[in-house]
Amino acid sequence: xxxxxxxxxxxAADRRRADRRAAADRHWAARLGTVAxxxxxxxxxxxxxxxxxSAHAVLVSTSPTASAVVPNAPAEVVLTxxxxxxxxxxxxxxxxPDGSRADRGEPTFKDAVVTIPVDPSGARGTYLVSYRxxxxxxxPVSGAFTYSVGAPSTPPTDTGTDSRANPVVENAVKVAxxxxxxxxxxxxxxxxxxxxxxxxxxxxxxPARLAWSGLGLLVAxxxxxxxxQVPYTAGGGLFAVTGSGLGDVLGSTYGTxxxxxxxxxxxxxxxxxxxxxxxxxxxxxxxxxxxxxxxxFTWPLAGHPAASPVPAVSxxxxxxxxxxxxxxxxGLVMLAVFLLRRADERELDAILPIWSRWAALAxxxxxxxxxxxxxxxxxxxxxxxxxTYGQLLLTKIGLFVLVIAVxxxxxxxxxxxxxxxxxxxxxxxxxxxxVITAVVLGVTANLVQTTPARTEAANVAGTSTxxxxxxxxxxxxxxxxELDPAERGNNSMHLYAYTTDNRPQPVKxxxxxxxxxxxxxxxxxxxxxPLTDNHATGEINLPAAGQWEFRFTVRTxxxxxxxxxxxxxxx
Length: 571
Known about the structure:
Helix content: 40-55%
Structural class: alpha+beta
Largest sheet: 5 strands, mixed
């Protein structure tokens, strides 16, 4: 038989001191983890190469001009975008009339200008230029155009590469965006309520699990976005990811923002553990709030706001918009899932008025930030109605008005003090808010992947006008006329002379005039500057819109000359 060992009871004061030491140790471990996470973030920032700031790109001009007929094969093709772009390897090609590659070597990127070296001894006929580049807001920009050397021919087909977007990848990117928003609101809502509104008598285990789920979902969605960005920008299926492609993404502004987000989340995770165990100290709470605020900026820095006309304003406004959404919806989830089910009437009577004020502030910030954001990204009322971005924004506004109506009803319950006594009624109102806002999040996930209305409207405007070309014939030569932008105001004109068998025709003297008889405008002389034997250029200011009559006299020898005319619609 063994003797029972009687343990001396530990005094209560000693237990309290031990508990304080354990809590202090946890807090120091959390702070050390935070410092480690911040160091990871700093390393990501230092290792990521700097890239120039730019905006959602639109192709504004090309040389040779799209659809132009030039006398000789150029030594290079130049693409000029509205802002700087980045390269997608192997996605810029020039195809000769016989279907072979006419480009020679890698294109060079300098801010908004892309220069493609081509074979200067290329055959006569029509060439196809296809391109795919990446704009600053992480979206691919692709397109194609043709030009002809000597005379047009049947346009070739680019069979060597497929630059079209993969619909599976595009939808997967939208799903990843949606999941990142969902993870953010679950994490922010749980952390905020536990830090400021959670009753001491209730267990924190349920909210802690919800927060960890939100954090895990946010990390997984961030990693998925990095993975999907490779096939999204370069083309291909979900698993068309190479090491070089992933390296290009991680080295971009988009990749840097996501790596910083992961570092900040890792740092915050160490402070979340003591929060889930009990009340958090003031210093740790401030550090956690700073980390959360910094993480919010990674979303706009990797999207449209960083590429807006006023990026500093757009980035701040979008971060406020996203943070307000996370506070409001995350708090609603905590109310619906935990507080309205577990808190008693006395606790709800204290919690709900505070939450009501928070929700009102969050909604006000959402409205203000959303208004500023809309004014920047849409720019004009016409763009709001005529573009996909504008229509999605109108849908989001309509749903937002609906959810505000439900939120107003919930706030009235709190003011009448009936929410604490009838939590089921309050819970139904909160669930209705969550259902509608879940749809709003889906619209938002589509919105951030859609070309901004200001860019789409400008692109449409640029393709509806901007260029006029025609070929004029005479008994001794043919004349290719190009006028850009064929609008009221300053215009650039190029003339190319060819023989009747489409060979370059040397010209001795060029004369050109423009008149608008319907408005009483007499012929205006256009000074011409010869660039080559058969190519001349001139500048003219057209003061009014209408059907302008251009008259060209070309002297090809001491005695041979002919005059041709063209009617050009000027907008």
